[in-house]
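Bug report (template v2)

What were you trying to do?
Predict the complex of my protein with adenosine-5'-triphosphate.

What happened?
Run completed; filing so the output is reviewed.

Input:
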Amino acid sequence: MTDQPRLPEMAESESELEFESTLRPNRLDDFIGQEKVRKQLDLLLRAAEIQNRTPDHILLAGPPGLGKTTLAMIVAEETGQALRLTSGPALQNAADLAAVLSSMVPGEVLFIDEIHRMARTAEEMLYLAMEDFRIDIMVGKGAGAQSVPLELSPFTVVGATTRSGLLPAPLRDRFGFTAHLEFYQDEELERVLTRTATLLELVSEPGSLAEIASRSRGTPRIANRLLRRVRDYALVHGTDISHEAVAAALQLYDVDERGLDRLDRAVLDTLIRRFRGGPVGVRTLAVTVGEEPDTVEAVVEPFLVRIGMMARTQQGRIATPEAYEHLSIPLPPL
Ligand SMILES: Nc1ncnc2c1ncn2[C@@H]1O[C@H](COP(=O)(O)OP(=O)(O)OP(=O)(O)O)[C@@H](O)[C@H]1O
């Protein structure tokens, strides 16, 4: 995936993914934060249960690492149904989707990550499948090709997207419920970290998890990853999760006291020094720092805007006085 949040120099390794999956809460009650979304989902699932039908299709929108995959898994767990995982980039044509849909068991939850990256032909097939639980399959080739209807058992699509604006309206309309996931408050991230520390049997100094939480960009995935790096440090230096271990490990990984990493600082630095504080388009910024535009758009920009260091204007992105101050660059004269 191109738009994953990351620690600098840290690829999303197998062990990283395994680590994440062991930390996923599997019931709605154990899912921390996102109060409103939890209540909305709870209602939707309970109503479906009372009516003995599959829940409406669900779209989860929000930046990476806020818990979309986790929520999809929770929907399957709470409804007692099987879960099938796929992603937009894996559905490059209608046949890819037909293969998935035709092999599903009744009631199954189909999770489509990065649903905005699905091929158009697959998208069109999905409209029909979501609405009528039916697809048309092309059999044969050329003049002899025939469209054969295939009835499907009812199922629930859980779509996840970091870019809901890119979803075509007909697809968006097929979802009975869209949940907009918000960045987490520091106090909520501290609860995520306390849960993780308990699962990993870590001993932490009072306040040290709060310190990690405040540098985690409002994102549980990042909080857990930072804790893992601090745990490494503590292990090697024979300490607990102490304030000293937090400070030293995060410094080593270039995560500053506001949670900005190297890429965030590079983007701000470029915006200020190269483009005189803006306005400049986000794609131009991405190209200038040598990063994927998707990453800058989905990961860097939302965070910098949220902490007030970048602002969006009609002409492009601008650096705020807070950004100058953070990078210790004098503000230009008015
Ligand atoms: N509310 C939460 N409570 C506890 N842990 C959470 C919560 N949200 C996310 N996590 C943890 O953060 C990690 C990332 O979550 P998840 O993979 O669900 O994010 P995502 O939004 O699907 O990200 P992406 O879109 O990049 O795949 C997982 O280890 C998960 O357990």
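What did the reviewer find?
The chain has three domains: 34-180, 186-252, 262-326. The two ends are 42 Å apart (CA to CA).
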